[in-house]
C-alpha cells in the first residue's frame, strides 16, 4: 500500500498572531501562526474586512512568533521559534508574495523539548536583540543589527541559562536606548527536589529576574532577581525610555506581572503597585476560583499607552498607568468588553483589534471608543494601602464588574474557523448534489456549531426576478469603452431580444438600436462608443448617434456562432464558412475579403481579448462538428490560415480563450488558455503557445452531465471563466495560482459579468425564467460552511440508517447544567440573596460560569441537516454527561432500531472516575425526530465507545469490552473481555470481528465466537499508540490516528485471519501463547505519517461521483485531509522521486527537516507528502525545469500529474 | 578503575548531566527518573499546540490556563522526594 497525503483544508486554529508592517508599506498586517502554517492577513482599513495575502505550510510546529523592527527601520520582520532547534527570521517579500528566510541559526536538537529553546520569544522594543527561551533552564540572546549594506545581521548566541529553573514567561523590557534588558518569570526546583518534607515546595518562590545584555561587553548578566507572586503567569512590557527629541519619558518602564486574581506593576528598585482583577458578580460563580490573564496587548499612542488584558473568561480589561516621568503614581484597571477567549490580541494603529480565538471563529473588531468616559468602576492601586502591596501574601478584596454587551468595540469581520473539529461524517444527504458533504461538529462550549461543508464557492445573491419567458442567453454591456458600469442587460429569447437598461431600477428600453425581433448570438461594446449585436441574419453596428450599420448574411444562410472582442468579430455561417471583421481606426467594421470554408459545421468559436496596446488578438479557436478544434490565425500576414488542429473525443459545445495568470506556468505574464467544453460534459484546458499557436498541456476535467457553456467574466478585476454544465464552475486566479471550483448555487443556463454601482463586481445569470444577480464574496475558500449553533461542546454524532437525521451528543466539563443552575439559583433566592439579571447573559458571548471539576452539562440533540435546524433536544440531568452513542437494531426486538447513549454521572477526567456509568436506551419516535427513553442500565465505568454488532450492542466500558442484549428493564450483559490496558475509545466491526482502539495501547483485533459465547483478542499492535480515531479499511486492515498527530495503517496477516475465522469455538486462540506480553498475533504497520494535527475522525469514502475511495480525515485544529492510494507503481516512483527533489529544493520556513517532521515519532512509511509536492507550482521556473528534467518530464507534465492526483481523488 | 580515571570520567559525566538536564545515570532513583519523565512530558504538552487544545477541550478550561497549570506542575510533578534511609 502506498498513499498520497493531501491537505484539502489546512488547520484554521490560530496559536499566535503578531502585527507589524511586514510588507514595508504604510499598512499594518497580521501574521497568524496556525501551528503548522503561517498566514499573512491584511485588514482593509476602509471596509474592515480581512483578506489573506499568503499562507504557507512550514513543515514544522510553530511554538512562538514575534515581530521586530530594527531601530529607524520601516519594515517589520518576524522571528519564529519552533520545534526545529533553530531560530528563524522571516521577511515578507511583497514582490514575489512569499516569506523569505533571512537567517536561520541552529542552537539545539529538534523536537519540542524541555531544555531546547523555542517556546518563548521576547524582543527588545528597539529591535536590537531577541531572547529565545525553553521551558526550563535555557535562554539564548541574539544581537540583531545591520551591516554596511543595511542587511539584517544576527550574532552568535549569548547564554543566559539558569539551571533547574522552570520558565513561565519572558518579555523584553522597554529601556529606551540603554542596554537591552529582558525579564523572565522563573521558579527554581532544585530545593524542592531535595526536600522530602515538602516545605521547600510550599515555599518555592517565583522570581522575576532581569537579564541585561551588555552591548559593550557582549555578554548577558543577571541584573536583578526578586520574588513575586507565586501564581504569576504572564509578563507584559511597560513602555519606558526617554524620547530622543525631548527629555520626556515614554513611560515608567518595567513590567506588569499578571498573577492569579492580581496584576502587579513591577520594576527594579521602585515600589510595586497591585490591583485585583475584577471578576463577574455571578451568583453561581465560585468566589474561591482564581482568575488568570491569558492574553495581553500593550498599545502606544501619541504620548500615552494602555493595556488590554484578557481573562480566561474572555473579559477584556483596560489597564492604565498614571506616571510622572519614571515614577508610577497609580495602576488602574477596569472592565472594557467581552470577546472570545484569545490566544493573541493584536491592536492595529488604524483602530482595529484582532482577536485570534483559541477555539472557533476569529474576529476583527473596530474600536468605537477607548472606554475613557464611561461609568464602569475603575480600581486603582491608590485605593489600597501601600499601593496594594501592604501584605503581598494575602489577596486584595475582590473587585467586581457587571459584564455587558460590546460597548467599546464593534465587530468588523469574522474569519471562519473549524477549530476544533471533534467529530465528522462524510455523506451525501443534500438534494441535488453529486458530491458528498462533510459534516463536522466544531467548537467548544457555548460557541459550538454543527457545520455542513460543501466543496465550492459561496455565492451571495443580490437580485432575483422572474422573466416573462425563458431566455437562452444574457449579456450586459457598457455604452462607451470608458464607462465605469454596465448600461444594458440584453436577454435573448427563441424569437426575440429584450433590452433592459440599468439605472435606479431595471426596466425595458426600446430605442437602443438593437434588433428586438430576432434572437441574439453576441453582444459587444465595440470601439470607443459603439455597440454590436450579432443575430442569426446579420450584424448590427450601433454607432453612438444611434445610426445602425447592418451587415446582412447572404440569402439562404444564417449565422450559427459568433465571437467578438473590442476590435474583432468572427461569425460562422450555416454553410460552414467563417467571416472575419475588424474595426479600423475610423471605427468602421470591415469584412475581410475572403471567407474561410471549414468543411464541417462550426459549433463554437472564440477569440481572446485584445491585448493592451495591440490592434488585435492573433488567434481564433474554432470547434467543428467533426470533433476537432482548429487554431486559425488572424494575423494580417496570414489571415484565416489554419495553424494547428486538435482532435477531441466528442463534439465541442463551447470554446473560450482567456489570458489568465497562473504562476505555476508563467510567474510574470498571463498565459493564454484555450478552454474547450465538450457536449459530454468534459472540459479540456489547453495552453496556447503564443509563438507557434500550438495547443499544449491539455488537462481534462468532468464538470457535469450537460453540454458545457463557457463564459469569460471579470472577477475582482481579473479574467475568469464560468463553466456551466449540470453544475456551475468558476476558473479563476487567486494568490497567483489557478483555481477551479464549483459554485454552490442553482444551475445556470447562461451567465455574464454584471457591473453596476451597487454591485461593481457581480455576475448575472439565468436559470429557467429567473434572472439572478450575484457576487462571489470569498475567493480562495474551497469549502462553503453552513452552521447550526449548539449548546455545549459536541462530542460525537451518528447517522440513522433509515432517515437523514443526525444524533449528536454534547457535553461540557466544569459547567453546571441548566437544571442544576436553576436549582442553585432558586436556593439562593430562598436564602434571600438577590439574583440579578447577570444570570441571563447569552452564553454564546459570555460563556457559562465555571463550576468545579466533576460538574457536567450535557444533552442529546437531533439535527436535520437538510433544513439545517435542531429537531429536538434532550438535556441530561443529575450531573450526567454523554460520551458515546450508537444506533442498534436489536435482534431480540425484531431488528427495531434503538439509540443507545453511553453516559456517566459525576465524571472526573484525570484520573478517570465516575459515580456510575449508564447505557441509556431510547426508542425512536416520529420517524426518528423524537426519542423515548426505554431504560437505563448501570455500568461500573464510563462507556466511551458503543457500536451495533450482530443485532446486539458492543460497549467499551472503561477497560472492559462487553456485548449487551436488550431486556425488558435493562440491557443484559452477555459476554465480557477485560484484557484492555487503559480504556476503549473506538470500535469498528466487520463480520464477527471487532476492532478495539485503546486509549494508549493501539488497535486490537477481537473476535466473537457464538458457539462458546467467547470474546477473544487474537491480534494487537507492536507499538503502543494513543488512539484518537480509527476506521476499517478492509477486513484485515485498519487506519487510525493517534494523539500525537500520526496516521497509520495496520494490517493483519491474511493467513492468521483465515485461521481465526476457521476456528469455530475460538479454543485455538484461547490456548495460543501470547507474544510480547500481548495477543498471540501482531499486525504489521503498512504506512505511517505525521500530519501535525490530532486526527478526530477517519472515513473511507469516495469524494467524487464514480471516483476511487480515499481515506478522509479531520483534525482537531480544523485540518481536513485525504490519503489517496496510488494506482500504479509508476505513479509511486514518479511522485516519490518528485518528493525527494522537493525536499532538497523547498526547505522548511522554520528550518525543520521535512522528512524528520513527517517522521516525528515513527519514520514516514509509504506515504508521499502531497502538500510538499504541490509547492512545486510555486518554485521558480529554473528549479521547476531542473526537477522536471531529472524526472524526464516537462514542467507541464509534472503539474498535470499533481493536479490529476488531486482532482480525481477529491475533486478539489 | 584507577582513581584518576574515575575522577576524569566523573567530571565528564557531571558536565554532561549539568548540560543536558534530564539525562539519566546508573544510580538514578525511581523518583528522579519519574520526575524527569513527568517534566519532559509536561514540557512537551505545553510545546505542542494540538495537545494543549486537546486537554483544554477535555477539561473545559482555557488553553492559557492549561499551559499555566502544566508549567506549575513541572515544579514538583510527583510529590515530594522520598525520605533517604539513614544508614
TrEMBL record, chain A:
Q: Where is the RSE1/DDB1/CPSF1 C-terminal domain?
A: 857-1177
Keyword Nucleus present in the record's keywords: the answer is: yes
Write out the GO biological process terms: mRNA processing; RNA splicing
Main location as per UniProt:
nucleus
Q: Where is the RSE1/DDB1/CPSF1 first beta-propeller domain?
A: 15-405
Q: What is this protein called?
A: Pre-mRNA-splicing factor RSE1
Q: Which GO terms describe its cellular component?
A: spliceosomal complex
Q: The organism sits in which domain of life?
A: Eukaryota
Q: Where in the cell is it found?
A: Nucleus
So what family is this one in?
Belongs to the RSE1 family.
Q: What does this protein do?
A: Involved in pre-mRNA splicing and cell cycle control.
What's in the keyword line of the UniProt record? mRNA processing, mRNA splicing, Nucleus, Spliceosome
Give start and end of each RSE1/DDB1/CPSF1 second beta-propeller domain: 460-776
Assembly and interactions? Associated with the spliceosome.
Q: Which GO terms describe its molecular function?
A: nucleic acid binding
Q: Name one Pfam family in it.
A: CPSF_A
Claim: Glycoprotein is one of the keywords in the record: no
UniProtKB/TrEMBL annotation, chain B:
Looking at the UniProt record for this protein, which Gene Ontology cellular component terms does it annotate, in alphabetical order?
precatalytic spliceosome; U2 snRNP
Q: Where are the transmembrane segments?
A: none
Q: Which InterPro entries match?
A: SF3b5/RDS3-10, Splicing_factor_3B_subunit_5
So which residues are the signal peptide here? none
Q: Which Pfam families match?
A: SF3b10
Any GO BP: mRNA splicing, via spliceosome
Give the highest taxon in the source lineage: Eukaryota
Q: Which family does it belong to?
A: Belongs to the SF3B5 family.
Query: PANTHER family, per this entry?
Result: SPLICING FACTOR 3B SUBUNIT 5 (PTHR20978:SF0)
Q: What is this protein called?
A: Splicing factor subunit
Amino acid at each position: 500500500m502506498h498513499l498520497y497525503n493531501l491537505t484539502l483544508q489546512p488547520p484554521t486554529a490560530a496559536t499566535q498572531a503578531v502585527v507589524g508592517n511586514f510588507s514595508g508599506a504604510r499598512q499594518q498586517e497580521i501574521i497568524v501562526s496556525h501551528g503548522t502554517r503561517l498566514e499573512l492577513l491584511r485588514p482593509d482599513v476602509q471596509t474592515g474586512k480581512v483578506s489573506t495575502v499568503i499562507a504557507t505550510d512550514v513543515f514544522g510546529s510553530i511554538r512562538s512568533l514575534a515581530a521586530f523592527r530594527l531601530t529607524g527601520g520601516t519594515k517589520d520582520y518576524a522571528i519564529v521559534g519552533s520545534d526545529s532547534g533553530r531560530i528563524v527570521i522571516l521577511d515578507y517579500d511583497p514582490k514575489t508574495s512569499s516569506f523569505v528566510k533571512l537567517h536561520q541559526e541552529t542552537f539545539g536538537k529538534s523536537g519540542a523539548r524541555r531544555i531546547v529553546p523555542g517556546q518563548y520569544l521576547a524582543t527588545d522594543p528597539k529591535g536590537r536583540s531577541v531572547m529565545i527561551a525553553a521551558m526550563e533552564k535555557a535562554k539564548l540572546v541574539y544581537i540583531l543589527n545591520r551591516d554596511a549594506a543595511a542587511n539584517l545581521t544576527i550574532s552568535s548566541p549569548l547564554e543566559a541559562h539558569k539551571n533547574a529553573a522552570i520558565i513561565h514567561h519572558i518579555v523584553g523590557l522597554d529601556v529606551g536606548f540603554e542596554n537591552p534588558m529582558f525579564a523572565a518569570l522563573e521558579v527554581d526546583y532544585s530545593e524542592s527536589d531535595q526536600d522530602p518534607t515538602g516545605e521547600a515546595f510550599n515555599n518555592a518562590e517565583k522570581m522575576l529576574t532581569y537579564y541585561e545584555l551588555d552591548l559593550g561587553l557582549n555578554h548577558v548578566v543577571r541584573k536583578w532577581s526578586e520574588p513575586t507572586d507565586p501564581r504569576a503567569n504572564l509578563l507584559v512590557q511597560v513602555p519606558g525610555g526617554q524620547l530622543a527629541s525631548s527629555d520626556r519619558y515614554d513611560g515608567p518602564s518595567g513590567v506588569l506581572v499578571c498573577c492569579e486574581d492580581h496584576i502587579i506593576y513591577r520594576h527594579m528598585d521602585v515600589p510595586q503597585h497591585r490591583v485585583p482583577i475584577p471578576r463577574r458578580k455571578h451568583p453561581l460563580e465560585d468566589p474561591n476560583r482564581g482568575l488568570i490573564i491569558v492574553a495581553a496587548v500593550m498599545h502606544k499612542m501619541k504620548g500615552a499607552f494602555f493595556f488590554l488584558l484578557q481573562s480566561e473568561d474572555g473579559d477584556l480589561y483596560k489597564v492604565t498607568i498614571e506616571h510622572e516621568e519614571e515614577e508610577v503614581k497609580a495602576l488602574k484597571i477596569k472592565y472594557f468588553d467581552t470577546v472570545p477567549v484569545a490566544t493573541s490580541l493584536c491592536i492595529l494603529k488604524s483602530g482595529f483589534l484582532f482577536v485570534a480565538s483559541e477555539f472557533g471563529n476569529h474576529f476583527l473588531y473596530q474600536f468605537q471608543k477607548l472606554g475613557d468616559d464611561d461609568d464602569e468602576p475603575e480600581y486603582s492601586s491608590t485605593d489600597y494601602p501601600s499601593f496594594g502591596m501592604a501584605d503581598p501574601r494575602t489577596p486584595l478584596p475582590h473587585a467586581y464588574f457587571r459584564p455587558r454587551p460590546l460597548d467599546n468595540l464593534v465587530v468588523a469581520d469574522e474569519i471562519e474557523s473549524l477549530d476544533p473539529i471533534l467529530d465528522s461524517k462524510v455523506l451525501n444527504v443534500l438534494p441535488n448534489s453529486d458530491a458528498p458533504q462533510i459534516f463536522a461538529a466544531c467548537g467548544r462550549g457555548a460557541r459550538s456549531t454543527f457545520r455542513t461543508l460543501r466543496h465550492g464557492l459561496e455565492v451571495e445573491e443580490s437580485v432575483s426576478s422572474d422573466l416573462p419567458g425563458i431566455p437562452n442567453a444574457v449579456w450586459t454591456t457598457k455604452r462607451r469603452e470608458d464607462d465605469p458600469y454596465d448600461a444594458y442587460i440584453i436577454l435573448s429569447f427563441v424569437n426575440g431580444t429584450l433590452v433592459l437598461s440599468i439605472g435606479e431600477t431595471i426596466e425595458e428600453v426600446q430605442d437602443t438600436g438593437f434588433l428586438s425581433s430576432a434572437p441574439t448570438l453576441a453582444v459587444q461594446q465595440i470601439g470607443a462608443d459603439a455597440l454590436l449585436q450579432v443575430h442569426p441574419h446579420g450584424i448590427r453596428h450601433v454607432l453612438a448617434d444611434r445610426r445602425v450599420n447592418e451587415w446582412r448574411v447572404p440569402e439562404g444562410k444564417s449565422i450559427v456562432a459568433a465571437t467578438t472582442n473590442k476590435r474583432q468579430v468572427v461569425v460562422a455561417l450555416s454553410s460552414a464558412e467563417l467571416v472575419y471583421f475588424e474595426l479600423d481606426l475610423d471605427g468602421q467594421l470591415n469584412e475581410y475579403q475572403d471567407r474561410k470554408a471549414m468543411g464541417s459545421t462550426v459549433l463554437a468559436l472564440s477569440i481572446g481579448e485584445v491585448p493592451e496596446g495591440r490592434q488585435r488578438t492573433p488567434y481564433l479557436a474554432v470547434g467543428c462538428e467533426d470533433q476537432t478544434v482548429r487554431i486559425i490565425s488572424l494575423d494580417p500576414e496570414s489571415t484565416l490560415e489554419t495553424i494547428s488542429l486538435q482532435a477531441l473525443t466528442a463534439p465541442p459545445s463551447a470554446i473560450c480563450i482567456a489570458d489568465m495568470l497562473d504562476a505555476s506556468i508563467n510567474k510574470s505574464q498571463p498565459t493564454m488558455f484555450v478552454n474547450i467544453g465538450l457536449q459530454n460534459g468534459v472540459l479540456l484546458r489547453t495552453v496556447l503557445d503564443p509563438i507557434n499557436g500550438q495547443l499544449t498541456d491539455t488537462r481534462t476535467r468532468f464538470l457535469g452531465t450537460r453540454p458545457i457553456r463557457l463564459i469569460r467574466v471579470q472577477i475582482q478585476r481579473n479574467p475568469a471563466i464560468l463553466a456551466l454544465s449540470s453544475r456551475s464552475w468558476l476558473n479563476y486566479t487567486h494568490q497567483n495560482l489557478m483555481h477551479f471550483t464549483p459554485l454552490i448555487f442553482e444551475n445556470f443556463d447562461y451567465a455574464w459579468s454584471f457591473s453596476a454601482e451597487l454591485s461593481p463586481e457581480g455576475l448575472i445569470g439565468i436559470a429557467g425564467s429567473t434572472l439572478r444577480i450575484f457576487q462571489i464574496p470569498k475567493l480562495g475558500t474551497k469549502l462553503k460552511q453552513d452552521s447550526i449553533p449548539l449548546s455545549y461542546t459536541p462530542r460525537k454524532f451518528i447517522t440513522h440508517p433509515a432517515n437523514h437525521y443526525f444524533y449528536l451528543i454534547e457535553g461540557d466539563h466544569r459547567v453546571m447544567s441548566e437544571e442544576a443552575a436553576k436549582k442553585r439559583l432558586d436556593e439562593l433566592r430562598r436564602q434571600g440573596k438577590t439574583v440579578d439579571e447577570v444570570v441571563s447573559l447569552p452564553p454564546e458571548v459570555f460563556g457559562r460560569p465555571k463550576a468545579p471539576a466533576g460538574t457536567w452539562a450535557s444533552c442529546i440533540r437531533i439535527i436535520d441537516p437538510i433544513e439545517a435546524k435542531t429537531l429536538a433536544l434532550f438535556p441530561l440531568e443529575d450531573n450526567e454527561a454523554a460520551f458515546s452513542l450508537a444506533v442498534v437494531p436489536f435482534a431480540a426486538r425484531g431488528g427495531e432500531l434503538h439509540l443507545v447513549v453511553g453516559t456517566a454521572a459525576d465524571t472526573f477526567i484525570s484520573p478517570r472516575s465516575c459515580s456510575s456509568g449508564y447505557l441509556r436506551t431510547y426508542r425512536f419516535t416520529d420517524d426518528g425526530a423524537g426519542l423515548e427513553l426505554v431504560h437505563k442500565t448501570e455500568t461500573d465505568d464510563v462507556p466511551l465507545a458503543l457500536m451495533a454488532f450482530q443485532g446486539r450492542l458492543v460497549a467499551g466500558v472503561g477497560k472492559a469490552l462487553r456485548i449487551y442484549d436488550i431486556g425488558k428493564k435493562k440491557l443484559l450483559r452477555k459476554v465480557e473481555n477485560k484484557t484492555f490496558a487503559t480504556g476503549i475509545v473506538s470500535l469498528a466491526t466487520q463480520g464477527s470481528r471487532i476492532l478495539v482502539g485503546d486509549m494508549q495501547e493501539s488497535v486490537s483485533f477481537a473476535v466473537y465466537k457464538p458457539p462458546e459465547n467467547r470474546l477473544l483478542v487474537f491480534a494487537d499492535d507492536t507499538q503502543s499508540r494513543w488512539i484518537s480515531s480509527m476506521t476499517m479499511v478492509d477486513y484485515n486492515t485498519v487506519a487510525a490516528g493517534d494523539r500525537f498527530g500520526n496516521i497509520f495503517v495496520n494490517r493483519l496477516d491474511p493467513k492468521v485471519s483465515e485461521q481465526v475465522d476457521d476456528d469455530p469455538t475460538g479454543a485455538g486462540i484461547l490456548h495460543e501463547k501470547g507474544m510480547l506480553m500481548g495477543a498471540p498475533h501482531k499486525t504489521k504497520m503498512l504506512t505511517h505519517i505525521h500530519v501535525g494535527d490530532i486526527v478526530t475522525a477517519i472515513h473511507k469514502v469516495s469524494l467524487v461521483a464514480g471516483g476511487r475511495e480515499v481515506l478522509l480525515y479531520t483534525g482537531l485544529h480544523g485540518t481536513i485531509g485525504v490519503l489517496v492510494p496510488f494506482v500504479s507503481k509508476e505513479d509511486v516512483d514518479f511522485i516519490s522521486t518528485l518528493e525527494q527533489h522537493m525536499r532538497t529544493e523547498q526547505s522548511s520556513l522554520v528550518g525543520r527537516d521535512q522528512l524528520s517532521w513527517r517522521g516525528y515519532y515513527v519514520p514516514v512509511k509509504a506515504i508521499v507528502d502531497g502538500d510538499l509536492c504541490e509547492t512545486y507550482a510555486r518554485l521558480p521556473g529554473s528549479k521547476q525545469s531542473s526537477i522536471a528534467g531529472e524526472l524526464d518530464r516537462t514542467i507541464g507534465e509534472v503539474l498535470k500529474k499533481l493536479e490529476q492526483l488531486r482532482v480525481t481523488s477529491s475533486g478539489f | 578503575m584507577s582513581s584518576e580515571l574515575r575522577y576524569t570520567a566523573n567530571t565528564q559525566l557531571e558536565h554532561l548531566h549539568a548540560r543536558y538536564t534530564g539525562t539519566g545515570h546508573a544510580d538514578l532513583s525511581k523518583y528522579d527518573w519519574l520526575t524527569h519523565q513527568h517534566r519532559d512530558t509536561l514540557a512537551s504538552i505545553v510545546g505542542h499546540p494540538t495537545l494543549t487544545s486537546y486537554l483544554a477541550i477535555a477539561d473545559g478550561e482555557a488553553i492559557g490556563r492549561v499551559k499555566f497549570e502544566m508549567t506549575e506542575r513541572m515544579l514538583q510533578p510527583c510529590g515530594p522526594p522520598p525520605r533517604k534511609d539513614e544508614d
